[in-house]
Design goal:
Layout lengths: L3 E7 L11 E3 L3 H15 L2 E6 L2 E6 L1
Parallel strand pairs: 1-2
Antiparallel strand pairs: 1-4, 3-4
InterPro entries: YpzH
């Protein structure tokens, strides 16, 4: 079974591009709220890539 990236949630618009939906946030609190909500909606898991970028992955 392959994992797939369902969404990217970031604070840094300059470091993220690609085919998955990207959500830009203004601060860490907003980032955490959006990640938590999308994790539940998409039935995925949140992983921290860098301090300002999270990905939601379905394993």
């Amino acid at each position: 079974m392959l994992s797939s990236i369902l969404a990217v949630i970031t604070l840094n618009k300059d470091r993220v591009a690609g085919g998955a939906p990207i959500f830009y946030c203004s601060d860490h609190q907003e980032q955490q709220q959006i990640a938590f909500l999308l994790e539940k909606i998409l039935d995925g898991m949140v992983h921290e890539v860098t301090a300002d970028t999270l990905v939601i992955v379905r394993h």
